[in-house]
Write a structure and sequence with these properties.
By secondary structure, this protein is α+β, with helices and mostly antiparallel strands. Helices cover 42% and strands 15% of the residues. The structure holds zinc ion.
Amino acid sequence: MTDLFDRLRRREYTGENRCWPCTITNSVLLAALVGTLSLLGRRTIARAVAVVGTAAIALRGYVVPYTPRFAPALVAALPIAPFDHGQPAAASGSLSDSSTTADTADGTTSAAEPTGEDVLRTLLEAGVLVPEGDDIRLADDVRDDWRREMQTLREAELATLAQVADSQTKSSVEARASRNWGRPVLVLEREGGAPVTLRRSVAVTELAAVCALESHVDAAPVRRAAGRPMRSLLEHCPLCDGPLTVTQSSCCGETTPAGQTPSEKLICPACDERFFTFDDAER
Ligand SMILES: [Zn+2]
């Protein structure tokens, strides 16, 4: 029986990966269907639908086809607490956000954070990035180091990721493991600034980048700021090593305002994870 459950279970949509907007939307739709059937006097069918539907939501995350494509947008439109998916502030957090503006809250601008140009210049000078025609690529040894760090960190507990984040950020930043609508996230609490929320996949990727850069770049602020742009150079999924693809279609974790075309993004189809959004200020 356990075997059967294991075969039916879709781990990418259940356990700590459960998408709560999908679960809630499906439960509401299922309850409506069961209620309608009961009202029509089809009690036996209603009971069967309730049992099968509840089991499907429990084991597979959702029962209505394509739920991950519409539920986040649906729930985002409701006047309830924000959730990870589709909320830019929460969904697009980066380690580099931990150092910006925190120092400027009281007007005493200090510790100038590196600009995008500073980061690019430093990474080029350090040989981390290599110009190739009109393009820039990641040096092979850095890519190998980065991948090794990602393979280690993706196996780590969220609490361990929080410790790594603590050691790699300023002392005024406190990292803690948390959950956002049931999904694991890393929250960086900062003195004088709003907390920054990192999806686990982003935390793994950017913390691995910081660790991989330690032997190449001395300036810690540059190492922290490099993680976000480096995500655009990923070739393999940090979580499963599968190939990444560039897509313009919406995936779970994104909502596109009506009338706008979704941005191009780098995703892992197997993990349904987004690693970078192009032509956007972020992400
Ligand atoms: Zn993957």
